[in-house]
Amino acid sequence: MWQFRFPTWLVLFVFALLVQTALLPVIFPVGYVPSMVLPVVVLIAVYETPRRGLAAGLLGGLMMDVWSGRTWGLNALTYAFIGYLVAILQGKIVRDQVFVPGLLAGVAQVAATPLQWVLLRVAGYHFAWLGFVRPLPSSVLFAMLMTPAIGGILRFRSRHEIESMYGPDL
Amino acid sequence: MSGFIYRFRRPLVVILAVMLGALSLSYTSSVRGKVVELSNLLATVVSPASSSLTFLGHQVGAGVNTVSQLFALQQENQALKQKLLLYNSMKLELTQLMADNGRLRGLLDLRGTLTGWHLQAADVISRNPDSWFQTLVIDRGTSSGIQTGMAVIVPQGVVGRIVAVSPTTATVMLVLDPKSGVGAMDVRSQSVGVLEGRDPVNGTLTFQLFAHHPDVLVGDAVVTSGYSQYYPKGLLVGQVVSVQHAQFGLTEQAVVLPSVNFNRLQTVMVVLSHPSGSSVPPIFGGSAP
């Protein structure tokens, strides 16, 4: 199925980055622009194994790093961790189409922020913690709403559901 | 006799009534004023009922008229709603055009004031996906004469400098970026230092001053010092909002609020070249001659 393929992820990340760099800055003020890549990573990881969730996060983060043109690895490491974490967590809870992706996206955003702060410190960028976490509530809310919305539009399903829809010989 | 009366009672009643009518007519024609008064008295007595009935009649008439005009009113309402929509969109368009006009007029004024300067206008097409690094992409590149290191300005002040360029696009590092490093000077005290991005969220700058006692006060204007290889001297950067001692009290640093609203950047000017040693006129925050 297309949602489990690597080129699909690539296209989704390109589209997410376009929205994030060209559309969201028009809506959100400087410093408060939320990540569009995070909802996509969470959405992919919710229906994947931890290893593939990690790979999806690594791909999305790396593309974001390349797009950003600054510290390559900051987002790659963060989103790889997020992909892995979400894929682990989703295996331990009951899965649905709306609440669980939204909840996991919120948890992922909360987990990503301190991790990025630490990574940026390691890279030599000393941001004040309070200033750094100020956009967190709006980012969490955005991720919690956007993740199920994208999943609904793209009709993301679990492997089990898709196999039962199209037969066992997929 | 009684039998005769009973037999012709109806014609007799009619004849009697005609006679009474004739008598009444004859009498009332001679005493007209009193009859009118009687009539007026009667009208006064029944006036509440009359006026109520008249009001009711008018209301019923108006209601019937409204019902009959309902369809026409509905059509008229639709037409008016469409007109209102049109006028609202025209108003929005007008507001947008006024904003664009103001922005472009500012850029034209800037171009007109900076005689001898070569400026290239460019539109902002995207921002950095990371909130912690402040860069943006403009729609002009080497094919328009833009090169790495050129300053980018707007009428309100300094935006940043070009850090990467392709034939059709260029990346601008904003002064808000933590690695921006703009050589700056306090206009009042002439104290110099370096400006760097301080807080990616509230968009303030750190003004690290070189002097031990620099005498910088809140409200001072901060302009480019001209000591940097990138920025011409005298471009307005912002205003001092607080002054604080750095660690161990050896140096002072100030917090500067940029004069440019980075949320509303649409069109910017890239400084392709400027006369050597020139300074920007005070209207754009330049140091006074």
Can you give keywords for this protein?
heterodimer; A: 170 residues; mainly alpha; Arp2/3 complex 21 kDa subunit ARPC3; 8 helices; B: 6-stranded antiparallel barrel; 12 strands; 38% helix; rod-shaped
Q: Which architecture of the largest domain in chain B would the CATH scheme give at its second level?
A: Beta Barrel
Largest interface: pair, residues per side:
A-B, 29 and 23 residues
Main beta-sheet annotation of chain A: none
Strand content of chain A: under 5%
Radius of gyration based on Cα positions of chain B: 45 Å
Number of helices of chain B: 3
Instruction: Calculate the mean pLDDT score of chain B and round it.
Output: 82
Question: How far apart are the termini of chain B?
Answer: 138 Å
| Share of helical residues of chain B | 25-40%
Low-confidence stretches of chain A: none
Instruction: Report the top-level CATH class of the largest domain in chain B.
Output: Mainly Beta
What is the domain total for the residues of chain B? 2
Portion of residues in helices of chain A? Answer: over 70%
Shape of chain B: rod-shaped
Note down, in words, how this protein is organized.
Chain A is mostly helical and 170 residues long. Chain A contains 8 helices and no strands. Chain A is 73% helix and 0% strand. The N and C termini of chain A lie close together (8 Å). Chain B has 289 residues and is an alpha+beta fold. Chain B folds into 2 domains: 1-113; 118-273, Beta Barrel (Thrombin, subunit H), CATH 2.40.10.340. In chain B, the strands form 2 sheets. Chain B has a 6-stranded antiparallel beta barrel. Chain B has a 6-stranded antiparallel barrel with strand order 6-7-8-11-10-9. Chain B is rod-shaped and about 145 Å long. The model of chain B is unreliable at 281-289 (pLDDT under 50). The chains are: A mainly alpha (170), B alpha+beta (289). The A-B interface holds A 17, 20-22, 25, 29-33, 35, 37, 64, 67-71, 74-75, 116, 120, 125, 127-128, 131-132, 134-135 and B 125-135, 137, 164, 171, 176, 178, 199-203, 262-263.
